[in-house]
Specification:
91 residues, binds zinc ion, 2 helices, 65% helix, mainly alpha, 0% strand
Length: 91
């Protein structure tokens, strides 16, 4: 008799904790993905002042591209790369 009641209470508790766990895991996955993306962005040497980010050539001390063409080319490649890896910053 009391066993049936205990089972019911246990079932309800298990359900709640399972939901909670699922939400918690989802949140952790999201946080981990975000942290990984930030770390990757920080690691990639995409903007070194004085060096062109596209061709690697020397440019003005404060510039990261030697000209408009390199800027456009690099931006285009980054966009394509992001799209290929499903990590579009627009989504
Ligand atoms: Zn360049």
């Amino acid at each position: 008799m009391s066993g049936a009641i205990d089972l019911g209470a246990f079932d309800a508790t298990e359900r709640l904790s399972a939901d909670d766990l699922a939400t918690h895991t989802e949140h952790q996955h999201l946080q981990a993905a975000l942290a990984q993306q930030r770390a990757a962005a920080a690691k990639s040497p995409r903007a070194v002042p004085g060096t062109c980010s596209n061709c690697g050539g020397a440019c003005l001390p404060q510039a990261v591209y030697c000209d408009e063409h390199c800027r456009a080319d690099h931006h285009h490649r980054e966009t394509v790369h992001a799209r290929q890896h499903g990590a579009s910053p627009r989504r």
